[in-house]
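$ ./design --mode recover --in tokens.txt
reading tokens...
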């Protein structure tokens, strides 16, 4: 089955419950650079990416956005694809898990595992983390997930189980026999330790939600999202299809050479995926390579911190090469790395504008000026100054070492090391030009000076050609332009594996010489920050992610539409645009009264009128005769308030005690069932039932803290 002259690389398929950001871009760019390089090496390459669209998280996000899961997935999947197209990512296929070819393939995989005796029916009762789509070891309703810290949910389900425990020994044997299967080494060690600590059977179906691929012959169950998602790597090639063309493709490209992933999904790829494949008697991928996390100015990017960086701002200002170069040069592959606009501009100016850009424009303009735009004839003759000859051969030697070092490092996924080598060489060429003074040689009219000038410029142009070819997979746009300026045609056709010194043809006619990396001034940083801020404000306004709304003390808290459920006060930002603020006057505003903005948007001043505070539940009990209401006493820092909230169906009163919640503190009091309610508790409202989920914090926050 294995074909040594092919290369199959995959990104994880991205969840559609979050819009693409620079973290997703990182993985995709790494894969794109590898795929481009493999193609230049003459290897038959297949690069797959796509979107992961099933599961409870997506079902809930869609419900909160008032659309069907499919509509929701269509929209976000198109955003991912649109971004990759804008960046000219060279993926060969983009798979969506909602496509028939995938659904059919996943069902075929399930049946195959069943037929081989690896699947049985059982029941599960315990805590489930919706965010990780995982059963976890946590005790009690709302207990935090040990993986991500988010509150878990209690579930009792009849499930199909996969006999993971039966594969422990085979997995360990496989890891031992394939030392390169998991990279880097630290991840490999973690995985081995995890498997050695004992594997439990894995639940591979769910009945608690519908948005998934039905189990063949038992459609009450949907297939576990990770079994569904992982199988994409094969369904995209045609697994599960009867078409001989698909079968041929699968045979040709499978097993994958590299599954590139982020470090947080190592277990799924390095334990579950090989276990499924071993059980199904299918070949295992050759390697799973995990990179670290991209942080924003040292902290994790997250929606709640409001520090998510989208790629578009950088694409629209410095361009895609700047982003690609930064990601591969700045981050030591395998480790966590930090992004900041400052660092981006510094790298751009230092390495691209002053480094490669400057080398290219000075070399090519001198050839234009002194040799009419034709690559000159280098001469080594006894009459040449021996010091010049020495410098030239030293540079040639450095070029050869650089090619070798660059290749070695790149192949070990040490992209920043490889680029460092290349830029060290650029500095060497700059030094060579500075020492040989071609502009002074051009002043002299004697034949030896002319020969020396020709040699210097040929040497510089040849060095530039080598740098450009090696850098192409990382910065494709600029190198394509430099290549054409060098008069060399289509850079993607360069056989990189044959790259060597001296291949530049004498007499090559240069193309039009233009700057490739104009310098960015300081104001660029501010501009990008502003653009990013504006983007995030716009996106918040039309967010597709869970909306925040208020759950008040009212029996109508679970009425039909999420917004109608809120009562008594303006809806918070994030409520669907166009929905009337419940309880708000329906008449037009009086003359002189501030109107927020058009389109039902409110101004920041309007928002600041709502006093949101962190409160802590001191006491909670059911309200007699009202099955949806709880009477809650909440400490808001300055006082303890009584609030009557319609959350009794979702929360048991005793479980709320001690919990930190978000309170609308300046709401006019009102009476419910004869009890005064003095404020509101903020919650998301899920699904058709409008089940409330209280807003909370992952970090510890002091009681009374203001939200703004
Ligand atoms: N859908 C699953 C993967 C299934 S693969 C069979 C998933 N999706 S995800 O949308 O959460 O994307 C995860 C991947 O995006 C990570 O593994 C990583 O490659 C990339 N990144 C997302 N955020 C990231 C950072 N902040 N930094 C670096 N990469 C991160 O998990």
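writing sequence...
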């Amino acid at each position: 089955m294995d074909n040594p002259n092919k290369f199959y690389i995959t990104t994880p398929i991205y969840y559609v419950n979050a819009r693409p950001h620079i973290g997703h871009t990182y993985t995709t760019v790494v894969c794109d650079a590898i795929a481009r390089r493999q193609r230049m090496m003459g290897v038959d390459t297949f690069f797959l990416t796509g979107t992961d669209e099933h599961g409870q998280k997506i079902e809930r996000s869609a419900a909160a956005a008032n659309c069907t899961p499919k509509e929701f997935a269509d929209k976000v999947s198109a955003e991912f694809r649109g971004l990759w197209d804008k960046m000219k990512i060279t993926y060969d296929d983009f798979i969506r898990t909602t496509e028939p070819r995938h659904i059919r393939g996943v069902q075929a995989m399930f049946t195959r595992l069943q037929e081989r005796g690896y699947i049985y029916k059982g029941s599960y009762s315990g805590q489930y983390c919706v965010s990780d789509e995982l059963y976890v070891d946590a005790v009690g309703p709302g207990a935090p997930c040990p993986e991500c810290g988010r509150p878990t949910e209690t579930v009792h389900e009849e499930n199909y189980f996969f006999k993971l425990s039966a594969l422990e020994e085979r997995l360990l044997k496989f890891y031992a026999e394939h030392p390169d299967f998991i990279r880097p080494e630290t991840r490999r060690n973690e995985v081995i330790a995890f498997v050695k600590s004992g594997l439990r059977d894995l639940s591979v179906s769910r009945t608690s939600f519908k948005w998934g691929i039905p189990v063949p012959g038992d459609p009450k169950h949907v297939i576990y999202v990770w079994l569904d998602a992982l199988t994409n790597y094969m369904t995209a090639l045609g697994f599960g299809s009867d078409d001989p063309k698909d079968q041929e493709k699968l045979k040709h490209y499978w097993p994958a050479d590299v599954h590139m992933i982020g470090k947080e999904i190592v277990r799924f790829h390095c334990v579950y995926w090989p276990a499924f494949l071993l059980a199904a008697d299918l070949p295992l991928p050759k390697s799973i390579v995990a990179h670290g996390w991209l942080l924003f100015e040292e902290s994790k990017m997250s929606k709640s911190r409001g520090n998510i960086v989208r790629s578009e701002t950088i694409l629209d200002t410095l361009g895609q090469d700047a982003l690609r170069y930064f990601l591969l040069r700045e981050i030591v592959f395998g480790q966590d790395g930090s992004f900041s606009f400052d660092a981006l501009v510094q790298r751009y100016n230092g390495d691209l504008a002053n480094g490669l850009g400057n080398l290219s424009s000075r070399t090519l303009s001198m050839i234009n000026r002194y040799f009419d735009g034709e690559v000159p004839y280098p001469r080594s003759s006894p009459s040449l100054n021996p010091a010049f000859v020495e410098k030239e051969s030293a540079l040639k030697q450095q070029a050869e070492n650089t090619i070798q070092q660059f290749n070695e490092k790149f192949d070990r996924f040490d992209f920043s090391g490889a680029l460092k080598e290349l830029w060290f060489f650029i500095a060497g060429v700059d030094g060579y030009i500075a020492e040989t003074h071609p502009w002074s040689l051009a002043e002299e009219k004697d034949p030896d000076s002319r020969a020396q000038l020709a040699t210097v410029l040929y040497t510089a142009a040849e060095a530039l050609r080598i740098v450009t070819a090696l850098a192409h997979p990382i910065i494709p746009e600029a190198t394509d332009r430099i290549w054409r300026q060098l008069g060399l045609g289509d850079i993607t056709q360069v056989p990189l594996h044959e790259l060597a010194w001296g291949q530049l043809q004498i007499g090559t006619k240069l193309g039009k010489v233009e700057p490739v990396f104009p310098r960015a001034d300081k104001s660029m940083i501010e501009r990008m920050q502003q653009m990013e801020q504006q983007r995030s404000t716009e996106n918040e306004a039309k967010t597709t992610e869970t909306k925040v709304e208020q759950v008040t003390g009212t029996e109508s808290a679970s009425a039909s539409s999420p917004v109608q459920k809120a009562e008594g006060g303006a809806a918070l930002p994030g409520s669907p645009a166009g929905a009337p603020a419940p309880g708000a006057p329906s008449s037009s505003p009086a003359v002189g009264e501030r109107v927020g903005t058009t389109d039902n948007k409110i101004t920041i001043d309007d928002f600041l009128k709502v006093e949101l505070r962190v409160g802590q539940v001191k006491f909670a009990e059911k309200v007699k005769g009202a099955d949806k209401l709880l009477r809650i006493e909440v400490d808001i820092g300055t006082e303890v308030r009584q609030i009557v909230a319609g959350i009794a169906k979702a929360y048991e009163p005793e479980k709320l005690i001690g919990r930190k919640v978000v309170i609308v503190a300046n709401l006019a009091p009102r009476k419910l069932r004869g009890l005064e309610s003095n404020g509101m508790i903020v919650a998301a409202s899920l699904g058709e039932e409008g089940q409330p989920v209280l807003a909370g914090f992952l970090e510890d926050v002091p009681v009374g803290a203001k939200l703004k």
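exit 0
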